[in-house]
Amino acid sequence: MSLTTLAKRLRQRWHVPALCVAVVVGLSWIGWVWLQPSPHKIIVMSVGNDGGTYHAYALKYSEILARQGIRLELRKSSGSVENYQRLKDPDSDIELGLVQSGIGNARDAPDLEVLAAVSYEPIWLFYNGATTIDQIAQLSGKRLAIGLTGSGLRKLTIVLLAAHGINASNTTLTDMTPQQAELQLRSGAIDAGFFIGIPKTPLVAKLLGSDLKLMNFSQADAIVRKFPALSKVVFPRGAIDLQRDLPAQDVTLLSATAMLVAKNSLHPSLVYALLDSAVEIHGDAGFFSTRNEFPNQHTDDFPISEQARRYFRTGRPFLQNYLPFWLANFIEQRFVILVPLLALLFALLQTVPRLLAFRVRTRLSHWYRELNALEDALRTTPAPGTAQRDLWRDQLMQLDAAVHQIDLPSRYFNQLYALKLSIQIVRNLQHQPDEPASER
């Protein structure tokens, strides 16, 4: 067999599978380019001021994400309220922020999602004076520091005070930074101040080690039922200093919850990387939480991200357990698109043998019909003349030559030789002498 003939046969046999492969490759390329864009490597995050809890958390996130080649760009803010306002602004480039529970909701910001609740944010009320204060109503008429404008603490404090009948008409409410509040409280310029943050926050730790009194929220159970965004937590006896037994009894506090909130346009792969970071940062036990209590999904302020639900249900994607983030993401993105296309390719290749068999049957049926028509003519024509016999002979020769040109796969040779044998039978019929009509 010549190379030209071999090439011709290969083209005839493989053009259908090749077409299937070409279709799938084309669809794969479209999906590769358009359907699942690659994640960018920069996340813009709104954080609090220097020295605050949110800013400290953000620095840890930045350090961990940098190991995976993701840069966290930090934008300072006045606190949780400003973080929330930036996130819900569709024209803002802020994609991520820590937001205090009770600050916003899904009706006000439908494009935001919670990735996880990450920590308790206890509210501390330090005060001066000989009288013990254990109810917020006792603060009426005093000079209070209620947090900085734009902070979640200020918004929450105003709501709590109002629930106890306290407002600017009967009490001196002063907006100031936590640092200013601490100085004025020590100097006696104010009577009490609200602060927020974990005990390890430098300013809170400094206040806990001072001579200032810490309020025990005796009505905490009733308050958290009235305000579901708050939780009741207990600062245990001896937590400040075991040797000096400070505090000398358990102290009941109110606590908000810090949530990691993102725009729903944040790429899914970045969500997984952020949640991995959250587990590393917030998973340890603290004064108010057990080990692995955070991060969690115990929040109703905004919808939980679908990727976050999947993460908490089954963990990170399989490949991210074994490969660097960029490589795992690259493979996962493409395979999400390619797997259904490969299934389509498999289905197409399964149909190729059937299509080929149908094509062979169609070609052979055509020649069998031609041969059958010729046989009928031979059997039904009485006393054909020489010209008619010559015509039949020529037709048989043409049919035989055409059949010899048919190129079929070897598994169909039996059908091809059956056709050739049938041609020979009809040719023999042509050379038989005419039978008397009575015998037929």
Give a structural overview.
- This protein is an alpha/beta fold and 440 residues long.
- The protein has 2 domains: 3-20 and 337-431, no CATH class; 42-316, Periplasmic binding protein-like II (D-Maltodextrin-Binding Protein, domain 2), CATH 3.40.190.10.
- Helices cover 48% and strands 15% of the residues.
- The protein has 12 helices and 10 strands.
- The chain has helices at residues 3-35, 53-66, 80-88, 152-163, 178-187, 202-208, 220-226, 268-282, 306-314, 325-380, 386-404, 413-431, and strands at residues 42-47, 71-76, 96-100, 112-127, 143-145, 172-174, 192-196, 213-214, 231-235, 251-263.
- Strands 1, 2, 3, 4, 5, 6, 7, 8, 9 and 10 form a 10-stranded mixed sheet that branches.
- Strand 1 (42-47), helix 2 and strand 2 form a beta-alpha-beta unit.
- Helix 10 (325-380) packs parallel to helix 12 (413-431).
- The radius of gyration is 41 Å and the shape is rod-shaped.
Enumerate the spans where pLDDT stays under 50 for 5 or more consecutive residues.
1-12, 32-37, 436-440
Q: What's the shape?
A: rod-shaped
How far apart, in Å, are the first and last alpha carbons? Answer: 48 Å
Radius of gyration: 41 Å
Outline the biggest β-sheet.
10 strands, mixed
In terms of quaternary structure, the protein is: single chain
CATH-defined topology of the largest domain: D-Maltodextrin-Binding Protein, domain 2
Helix content: 40-55%
User: What structural class should be given to the helix and strand makeup?
Assistant: alpha/beta
Total DSSP helices = 12
CATH architecture of the largest domain: 3-Layer(aba) Sandwich
Rounded average pLDDT: 84
- Please count the beta strands (DSSP E, at least 2 residues each): 10
Total domains, how many? 2
H/E series: HEHEHEEEHEHEHEHEEHHHHH
